[in-house]
Amino acid sequence: MYRYVDVLDILNRHEDFDSSAFLDDRCEVSWDLYTDLYELWVEEMPYGTAKGRDGDPYEWVCNRLFQELGDLV
After folding, report:
1. Cα separation, 56 vs 26, whole angstroms
2. 17 CB-near residues (< 8 Å, 6+ apart)
3. Model pLDDT, residue 1
4. CA distance 28 to 57
5. What does the pLDDT read at residue 70?
6. CA distances from 2 to 22, 38, 59 (A)
7. How many domains in the chain?
8. Spatial CA neighbour of 14 closest among 28, 31, 33
9. pLDDT tens digits, residue range 9-49?
10. What stretches of 1-73 show up as alpha helix (H) in DSSP?
11. pLDDT at 68 exceeding the cut of 60
12. How far apart (Å, rounded) are the C-alpha atoms in residues 54 and 5?
């Protein structure tokens, strides 16, 4: 449950982010929001993805955010 608090705290700091538009695939994650979420989840991310070798860390963060927001709805 503590992760939801962390995610919500981060989203609240980024007032320009519209979670319902994101869930409807009508907006993207800004660089500042991505950076905050990356720092939150980097330890859970596969190493190669975190380093950009085996996957795209931006895509991983966006997929994880989509999952987290879906769990909150």
Report:
1. 20
2. 11, 27, 29, 30, 33
3. 41
4. 14
5. 84
6. 22, 17, 23
7. 1
8. 33
9. 999 999 999 999 999 989 899 999 999 999 999 999 999 99
10. 2-13, 19-23, 31-41, 47-50, 57-72
11. yes
12. 29
Type of residue at 5: V
Q: Which residue has the tokens 């975190």?
A: 50
- The domain of 37 spans 2-72
SS3 7: helix
pTM: 0.87
Q: Which residues of 5-25 are buried (b: 16+ CB within 10 A; e: fewer)?
A: eebeebbeeeeebebeebeee
Structure confidence at residue 4 (pLDDT)? 61
Question: Quick one: pLDDT at residue 5?
Answer: 64
| Residue 71 pLDDT | 77
Which residue's entry shows tokens 């989509």?
A: 66
